[in-house]
Design goal:
Blueprint: H1 5-27, E1 30-35, E2 38-44, E3 49-52, E4 56-57, E5 60-65, E6 76-80, E7 87-88, E8 101-103, E9 124-125, H2 142-146, H3 161-175, E10 181-183, H4 190-199, E11 212-216, H5 220-228, E12 233-235, H6 239-255, E13 272-276, E14 279-283, E15 290-292, E16 297-299, E17 310-312, E18 314-315, H7 322-328
Parallel strand pairs: 2-5, 3-6, 5-7, 6-8, 8-9, 10-11, 11-12, 15-18
Antiparallel strand pairs: 1-2, 4-5, 12-15, 13-14, 16-17
């Protein structure tokens, strides 16, 4: 009688090999680094769908999902994050536009800015008690689009022009006619976003198919763009006053001059103690005018941070704006 034991043994070996290969394939979907005996996932490279992040790799715990690890993974549908993970990086799941459900680690400490921004399909997320700070734009469009009763504050994203224009392109492609406004945290992306909107047949300010574009800086070409309707508004950072009073206070410090809250300010009416993220310093809180084509009174339904609910914008024709002053000295705002 022939023995069948060798065949059983071979089958067991084959099963073990197949299961090991599957485990290796699963871990091969992630690029990671090792630091102090722990794993940081730096990039997901898998096919999408349902993704379960492993709790260990190479015998080491997975503790961190790095910055932009899942950025623009359009085919990822559901993500499960193990309890070994304590940290999620900036932009970690940004622009995962098909992401529907996320199960967070019960030991996660914080959710940073833009971690889940532009996850427009995200239905909701249960945040564990271990999470204390949540970035102001962590779920920027995700919950805003699906739960409009929640009001979110925005914050800057990536200080690279190409990245900002690419983000605008992604928003246009993902949301189409649902896209109502774009805020660029600084002026440089305008030069790419304006022609992008034009190529998609979006009109200027006042036209029915207009996408509101608000920028920041107040440089001469922004004054030109506000004036011709390409940009709806600009927060005009008074760069001349920043430079002037930075030097003034530096000289005062060198001379031993001491200032205190309540003293007359340079750009602001008076000096104030300003607190940001627990750090308090004496400051000259110079106001940046909000510039529109014509002076407009705006009323906020829910004022924040103790600011007034009504304010009036500054007309772009105001020749005291630093962008206009500099532009006129260099051939005009549209030539600068």
């Amino acid at each position: 009688m022939k023995s069948v034991r060798p065949k059983i043994g071979i089958s067991i070996i084959i099963i073990i090999i197949i299961m090991s290969a599957l485990a290796m394939q699963a871990h091969a979907q992630f690029i990671f680094t090792t630091n102090s005996g722990a794993i940081t996932i730096t990039r997901y490279t898998g096919p999408g769908g349902d993704v379960t992040i492993p709790s260990t790799t190479n015998g080491l715990p997975v503790t961190t999902i790095g910055n932009s690890a899942f950025w623009q993974q359009f085919s990822v549908l559901n993500v499960t994050i193990p309890d070994t993970v304590t940290s999620i990086g900036y932009n970690a799941f940004n622009h995962c536009i098909a992401l529907t459900n996320v199960t967070l680690s019960r030991n996660l400490r914080a959710i940073p800015d833009d971690a889940f921004s532009y996850c427009s399909a995200l239905r909701g997320i249960e945040i564990p008690d271990s999470v204390t700070p949540i970035g102001s734009s962590a779920f920027e469009s995700c919950i805003a689009q699906n739960a409009p009763g929640i009001k979110l504050l925005k914050s800057p994203t990536n200080w690279t022009e190409a990245t900002a224009v690419s983000a605008a392109q992604n928003a246009v492609n993902a949301y189409g006619s649902q896209l109502k406004a774009i805020y660029a945290q600084w002026s440089s992306p305008d030069t790419g976003i304006i022609p992008l909107l034009k190529s998609k047949n979006y009109g200027k300010v006042g036209e029915a198919n207009h996408v509101i574009l608000i920028s920041d800086d107040g440089v001469p070409f922004e004054m030109c763009d506000v004036g011709n309707g390409s940009v709806a508004a600009s927060q005009s950072q008074p760069a001349n006053l920043y430079a002037q009073y930075a030097l003034t206070y530096a000289v005062d410090a060198a001379k031993g001059v001491k200032h205190a809250a309540g003293d007359p300010g340079g750009g602001a009416p008076k000096l104030e103690n300003v607190t940001y993220q627990g750090d308090t310093n004496l400051a000259d809180p110079i106001v940046a005018p909000f510039v529109t084509k014509s002076a407009t009174t705006l009323t906020l339904a829910s004022p924040v941070d103790g600011l007034p609910g009504t304010f009036t914008t500054t007309a772009v024709s105001d020749q005291t704006l630093w962008g206009n002053v500099y532009g006129q000295a260099h051939g005009g705002v549209c030539a600068s």
